[in-house]
Design goal:
By secondary structure, the chain is mainly alpha-helical. The protein has ten helices and four strands. The protein has a four-stranded mixed sheet, with helices on both faces. Strand 3 and strand 4 form a beta hairpin. Helix 7 packs parallel to helix 10. It is elongated.
């Protein structure tokens, strides 16, 4: 079923690309757009994951330079019955994560520095379980290719003035066609992105909660990530907005509503679904159904995760103080001596 949906989506993206080409350059522009779309699809299948990781300045890590983070992903992959994906860290203060790759055998997961610094061990595990759910559902190929094609369509619309509209070409709409392509192409690409990601996010939330074993861990993580995304800009994502649907929470500012142009469902709706899932599993329920986000997960409420780290009791006297790095060590190994960054 996923293969059929992917094929239909790629066909729709190619048709959209050809339509923009026709508006710009008539029949000749449509043929050129078809050739470009075919080349983009082929390139995306083999290289889109590398391009997305490069755009986000992701660095591959292993058990030597990021032992705890790597161990979480390794244990969760085993729990889900998946091959161990390549594991990346992104030098970005905004808490977020994404998965990419053409299939489970060639998958990669990436988490930002902000995610490791702001979330607890259990919450990080829940986020990575969500990303592994995308890998297991084979969403990563579709989402990565759509990011590439959507970016190409948006760029084609932005450069419409320079690509056509003169009397010498075969464009039957003239300047009007070029103007329509400029205005419509980016929004059309955004609508396709929305169709890809919104339903798949709910499915990945559900499966991710099953993999990590506690839906409230993921609910709490989503709440923290959403608040962090509102406060901390992601400059790499802002420069490449076509990648926004890859992340677990929309990294762009101004995308809080569950509306037509949002690439993600509203965080409140996702949290509510996870809270309902926790109640159906017999887990601790939130104090109030009207509560927008779950209460902080206390260690005594959270069972041991599949990575084998039992929950630690909270200090009885004073509330725990936030730590800049929950791992208690540099998760990526030594850095340059004269530079202090979010990993330090």
């Amino acid at each position: 079923m996923n293969t059929l949906r992917t094929a239909m989506l790629l066909a729709a993206m190619t048709a959209l690309f050809m339509g923009v080409g026709y508006l710009i350059g008539g029949s000749g522009g449509m043929v050129i757009a078809l050739l470009i779309a075919a080349g983009t699809n082929l390139f995306s299948y083999w290289n889109a994951d590398k391009m997305v990781l490069s755009m986000n300045r992701a660095v591959e890590v292993d058990e030597k330079n990021a032992p705890e983070y790597y161990a979480i992903v390794q244990a969760l992959a085993k729990q889900a019955g998946l091959p161990m994906p390549k594991t990346y860290l992104i030098d970005n203060p905004q808490p977020n994560a994404f998965a990419t790759g053409r299939n489970p055998e060639n998958a990669a997961v990436a988490a930002s520095a902000g995610l490791l610094e702001r979330l607890s061990h259990e919450e990080v595990a829940a986020v990575m379980a969500h990303e592994l759910a995308h890998v297991q559902h084979r969403d990563t190929l579709t989402m990565t290719i759509v990011a590439t094609l959507a970016g190409a369509i948006s760029m084609l619309g932005n450069f419409a003035f320079f690509l056509g509209g003169s009397r010498e070409n075969n464009n039957p709409f003239g300047f009007v066609g070029v103007l329509v392509a400029m205005l419509v192409a980016p929004f059309a690409a955004m609508i396709v992105q929305m169709a890809v990601s919104r339903t798949r996010e709910y499915e990945a939330d559900r499966r991710g909660a099953e993999i990590c074993g506690n839906p409230l861990w993921l609910a709490s993580a989503l709440n923290k990530i959403a608040r962090g995304a509102e406060q901390i800009p992601n400059e790499d994502a802002e420069r490449n907005p076509a990648m926004a649907h890859l992340f677990i929470i929309n990294p762009l500012h101004g995308e809080r509503m569950d509306n037509l142009f949002s690439t993600h469902p509203s965080t409140e709706n996702r949290i509510a679904a996870l809270q309902e899932m926790a109640r159906s599993m017999g887990g601790p329920a939130p104090a109030s159904r009207r509560q927008a986000s779950p209460p902080p997960i206390q260690p005594e409420e959270a069972p041991s995760g599949p990575w084998g780290k039992p929950a630690q009791p909270a200090p009885p006297a004073e509330p725990p103080q936030p730590r800049p790095n929950p791992w208690g060590r540099n998760p990526t190994g030594p850095r340059n001596a004269g530079r202090r960054g979010p990993w330090s």
